[in-house]
Structures are given as C-alpha cells and as structure tokens.
C-alpha cells in the first residue's frame, strides 16, 4: 500500500500534488489555444443548451462548494440565473422549477445517496435536461443523466476531497464557457472573454506548481493552528465558497472547529468571537472586493485576532497592514478560486499532521455516503 503513495506520507498529500497533472488531463482535448472545443458535452448538447434560461446546481460536501463557485461564474460569465443547494435540503423541499432550467449535479463518486435522490426527483420535475459533473465513469449518476462532463482526477483515496474538487472547478468553468458561447452565438465574432480565460487555463497548472512550492511556508504557519480550538475563514465573492472549503478541510482532518464567513457578514455576529485564541484566515486576491476585505481585516486586527492572509503581490496587504501574508502568484480573477484552494488544502494537511490525526481516514467520515 505504501507503494501506492509514491513516497508521500499520506494519500491526501499525494493527491494534492497530483493537481497540476489531473487539471491538465481534465482540459485535454477540450480546449484549443483560445477557445473551448465544440461538443465537449456530446452531440445532444447542441440541441438542448440553446434553450437553457437558468441553472439549478445540486451536490453535497466539497462538491457543493464547487457548485457555489460555479454560481458566480454562470451568472457573471454566462449571464444566466443560477441557484445552488445541498442535495439533502433540495430533495425534501417543494422546488418550483422555472421553464427551461438545466439541472446540474456534481459528485466525485457519482453514488452519494442524497445527490442521486435529488437527480431522481429532478428527472420527474420538468427540467429541460440533467447534466452530471462526475469523476467515476459508469457510476449511477452518469448512467441516469442526459449529459455528462467527466472530471479526470483519477481515483481519490483520501476521504478529504482535494483533486476531485479542483477538477470539478475546471469542468464547471468549461461548462460556463459553453453556456456563454451558446448565448453569444448570435453576436458572432471573437469572444475576448473566452480567449482570456482559456489562455489562463493553459497557464494554470504551472501556477499550481508554484503554489505547491510554498509548502514549507504553509507548514510553518500551521504551527499556530495546531493548539487552537477554533478558526475563522473569510472570503468575498468566489472566495467565499473557497473559504467554506478551507474550513471544511480543517474540520474534517484536524478536528478543529472552523467556520467560513463571507467577510461582509463579520460585523453581524462572528466578530464577537474574535480574540487571540481565534486564528483568522483571509483569502485576499487583488480583485474588486479587496478594499472591502481589507477593512474587514482591520476590524479583526483591532480586536487582537491573529490573521493569516493569502494574497498576491498586487494586493499590498502585508506591507500596508502588517499582517502575516503568504504571497500567491497572480492569476486572472475568474481562476483565482482554483489557485487559492491549494494553500488551504496544505494548511489543513499540515495542521492534521501536527495533531497526529488519521489524515486519510478521519474519524466518523466516509469517502462516499451511499445511504441517507
Ligand atoms: C462525503 C465525502 C466528501 C464529499 C461528499 C460528497 O462526505 O467525505 O469528501 O465531498 O461525500 O461526495 P461526492 O462523491 O458526491 O462528491
């Protein structure tokens, strides 16, 4: 078994390091230099997708966080209304399905009981079509949906999902660009937005390698979490779901209580919890919401909270504010959620190793939850 880990101490660490390769695999044969190739969703898709007027996304756990990121993308890049919900709530709610809605379910395993039940409900509920983003060919989810886009993460052994999540994000970005293309078909001409994102997708695996090279610094920061009971993760926009994913990773494998908040909500409650025993992680790429996030961080600093910031050079957070900063490579806003996932995975991993937990098989959790 140790051989399967290829020299890594845990499957989770091996899977974190596989991400540049599996992202590349997920893009393979699906993009040219500047655009998404036609028919990546199969030939039927061209008959269905022109009718899509909104999107409902359903998933559980980490896959739900991928869906949360996709909502920002589908609204901003494809211009379609999008709702995202956990499958265990969705399946027991009286969902009203607007005409021409595409149902998208996301699952690493394709066998999660709640997600399958949601899909089976959706198939009777008058959706335009169902689409799966999934990592396991031949899984129930793939057999039962009209359309599918496979992630190519390969087998994921660690219970805490890592490479499945980032490849889901890649697949969801491809889906977003396909939806955008269909909606823009009438306007013709070159789409500079698509060109910009596709070029950045080509460059992404290299940037991921640069983030993996920050491992030692992240390991050093992990020291200040290992003896804490709680941690707070803050982000805004697409980084809010990434904060949720970072908090989930820490909870799952280090058993530290971690909560994610959209930074603008800090003043509506969680600020009361902040003191020197509550480390705060902030995800702060240089985007439209950065200035607002900085003022949120000042509120934390003023209350004695220890803040660890993940930011790029242009964000100028460290020098200006005197905070602990891990410097990330620059990346276009649209792909920042993918890049900023990596340091949070590594942080959770190192905290868990310091605490001596069973990283690959955390207590009480299963890789795939096939019963309700
Ligand atoms: C379990 C796993 C998580 C996973 C979730 C959804 O809780 O421990 O890592 O995100 O199920 O699984 P799925 O296979 O549907 O993505």
TrEMBL record:
Annotated SIS domain residues: 44-185, 221-362
The UniProt record lists the keyword Cytoplasm: yes
Keyword S-adenosyl-L-methionine included in the entry's annotation: no
Location of this chain's protein in the cell: Cytoplasm
EC number: 2.6.1.16
Residues annotated as catalytic: 367
MF terms (GO), sorted A to Z: carbohydrate derivative binding; glutamine-fructose-6-phosphate transaminase (isomerizing) activity
Highest taxon listed in the record's lineage: Bacteria
Main location: cytoplasm
Name of the top EC class for this enzyme: transferase
Keywords for this protein: Aminotransferase, Cytoplasm, Glutamine amidotransferase, Repeat, Transferase
One GO term (biological process): UDP-N-acetylglucosamine metabolic process
Catalytic activity field: D-fructose 6-phosphate + L-glutamine = D-glucosamine 6-phosphate + L-glutamate
GO cellular component: cytosol
Function comment: Catalyzes the first step in hexosamine metabolism, converting fructose-6P into glucosamine-6P using glutamine as a nitrogen source.
Quaternary structure and partners: Homodimer.
Record protein name field: Glutamine--fructose-6-phosphate aminotransferase [isomerizing]
